[in-house]
């Protein structure tokens, strides 16, 4: 018994005129990733024998944006409709007549792999299977026409539908599965529909009916999962609907979302118990939070891991950082990639940390830059302290031991190390290693002059 191979064709050639953009429509992002990237992720999850993307407008730009080794790029040089686009792809598919071809669209960003698997299941014993859904307002969509036995016999476009047919709420999503041999027979028979010579893929439904071929359908239960994007307003509405669903999922799993309408998820977020997320927080990439984490308003978290009891205060920006239990950050703090904060350490307002390890219970409370540093436990870094890690050509490391006290407005010129329990006087510029337990003061001596008179402005002569 021969097995049927699966070939997937993704249509992404259109300019998307209604987007009013120089960028190809399929490259516009939803939740931080392009629509085409999202569709290709789903397509690849089905493990097809081949994956073909039909491109036209902005073809080179799309190739550069989606450098996927398993994708065959098929260029549609003339924009002659969906039927012509699929024909371009079918011409390069190497397969048997009984193989199945799944046609998808690059502007359906919330596509669900489970729905497609069900569609493919419906297609096992049929020559053609069409994915449908129901809309409260089906205006503008092709209606699914069925006979008295509930079999699909046609797709009626809005302009051709009768008044009764326009009342039908089941619509065509455009996505379908057909046998490769059938497509090779039907596609050359497509006729132009307008002066532009466009060929419509939906016409193959009538051809299948006339040929006595079996036609199956699968109804997608969630219209959002199969909805396409035509303009920026539709994209914005879809974005917000998706964000609300993500917020709902977190809330139902035990996270307090202060305002579900003012939170953005642009990646994967995993929360422990009793976390709280305030307004205008943006999550990007992979974010993992332990129990009892609090994120205050207007924060951005990208690729971070937060331990139990972490508090991120307002207006902080965290990227590529790991925070241990009970860490406090902000407000107005920035953690850059490679920041590793041990338990109960504190990074305060207007502090930037980059590629540094901050030891347990150590504090950098105000107006400081800590870069390329290894800091021990129980340290106190005074306001305005800077680790000078760059000499104009190379980065150098600062090593700070345990229980070190650095006075305000100090500069630690790397490479340099401060031993355990060392003390640095305020305003010092440290260029040499400080041994354990030593006091280092490196600043100009204070000068006192009695009877000092301030300079006065010269009188202006009129």
List keywords for this structure.
single chain, 462 residues, alpha/beta, Spore Coat Polysaccharide Biosynthesis Protein SpsA, Chain A, UDP N-Acetylglucosamine Acyltransferase, domain 1, 3 domains, 11-stranded parallel β-sheet, 10-stranded parallel β-sheet, 7 helices, 38 strands, elongated, Bifunctional_GlmU, cell shape, Hexapep, EC 2.3.1.157, nucleotidyltransferase
Mean pLDDT: 95
Low-confidence stretches: none
Give me the side-by-side strand order of the main sheet: 12-14-16-18-21-24-27-30-33-36-38
The N- and C-terminal alpha carbons lie at a distance of 109 Å
Which percent range fits the helix content?
Answer: 10-25%
Strand content: 25-35%
The secondary structure category is alpha/beta
CATH architecture term of the largest domain: Alpha-Beta Complex
Q: Major beta sheet, specifics?
A: 11 strands, parallel
What is the CATH fold-level name of the largest domain?
Spore Coat Polysaccharide Biosynthesis Protein SpsA, Chain A
Number of helices: 7
Radius of gyration: 31 Å
The shape is elongated
CATH superfamily of the largest domain: Spore Coat Polysaccharide Biosynthesis Protein SpsA, Chain A
The beta-strand count equals: 38
Return the domain count.
Answer: 3
CATH class of the largest domain: Alpha Beta
Family: In the C-terminal section; belongs to the transferase hexapeptide repeat family.
GO molecular function: glucosamine-1-phosphate N-acetyltransferase activity; magnesium ion binding; UDP-N-acetylglucosamine diphosphorylase activity
Subcellular location: Cytoplasm
Subunit structure: Homotrimer.
């Amino acid at each position: 018994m021969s097995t049927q191979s699966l070939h997937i064709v993704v249509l992404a050639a259109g300019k998307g005129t209604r987007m009013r953009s120089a960028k190809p429509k399929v490259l516009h992002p939803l939740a931080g990733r392009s629509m085409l990237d999202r569709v290709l992720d789903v397509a690849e999850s089905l493990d097809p024998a081949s994956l073909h993307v039909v491109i036209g407008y902005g073809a080179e730009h799309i190739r550069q944006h989606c450098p996927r080794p398993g994708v065959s790029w098929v260029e549609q040089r003339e924009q002659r409709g969906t039927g012509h686009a699929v024909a371009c792809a079918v011409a390069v598919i190497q397969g048997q007549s009984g193989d199945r071809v799944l046609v998808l669209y690059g502007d359906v960003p919330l596509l669900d792999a489970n729905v497609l698997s069900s569609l493919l299941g419906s297609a096992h014993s049929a020559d053609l299977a069409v994915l449908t859904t129901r809309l409260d307002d089906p205006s503008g969509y092709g209606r699914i026409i069925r006979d008295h036995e509930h079999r699909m016999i046609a797709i009626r476009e809005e302009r051709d539908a009768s008044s009764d047919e326009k009342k039908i709420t089941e619509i065509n999503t455009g996505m379908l599965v057909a046998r490769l041999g059938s497509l090779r027979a039907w596609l050359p028979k497509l006729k132009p529909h307008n002066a532009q010579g466009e060929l419509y893929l939906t016409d193959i439904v009538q051809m299948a009916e006339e040929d006595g071929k079996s036609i199956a359908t699968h109804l997608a239960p969630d219209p959002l999962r199969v909805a396409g994007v035509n303009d920026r307003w539709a994209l914005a509405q879809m974005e917000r609907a998706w964000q609300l669903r993500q917020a709902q999922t977190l809330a139902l799993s035990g996270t307090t979302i202060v305002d579900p309408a003012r939170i953005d998820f642009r990646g994967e977020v995993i929360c422990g118990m009793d976390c709280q997320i305030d307004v205008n927080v943006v999550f990007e990439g992979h974010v993992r939070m332990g129990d009892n984490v609090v994120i205050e308003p207007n924060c951005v978290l990208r690729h971070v891991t937060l331990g139990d009891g972490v508090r991120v205060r307002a207006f902080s920006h965290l990227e590529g950082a790991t925070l241990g239990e009970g860490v406090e950050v902000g407000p107005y703090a920035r953690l850059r990639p490679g920041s590793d904060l041990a338990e109960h350490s504190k990074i305060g307002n207007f502090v930037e940390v980059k590629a540094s390890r901050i030891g347990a219970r150590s504090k950098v409370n105000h107006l400081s830059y800590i870069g390329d540093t290894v800091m021990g436990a129980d340290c106190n870094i005074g306001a305005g302290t800077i680790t000078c890690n760059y000499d104009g050509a190379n980065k150098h490391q600062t090593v700070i031991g345990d229980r070190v006290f650095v006075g305000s407005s100090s500069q630690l010129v790397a490479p340099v190390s401060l031993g355990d329990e060392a003390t640095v006087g305020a305003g010092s510029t440290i260029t040499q290693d400080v041994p354990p337990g030593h006091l280092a003061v490196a600043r100009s001596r204070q000068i006192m002059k009695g009877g000092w008179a301030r300079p006065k402005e010269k009188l202006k002569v009129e």
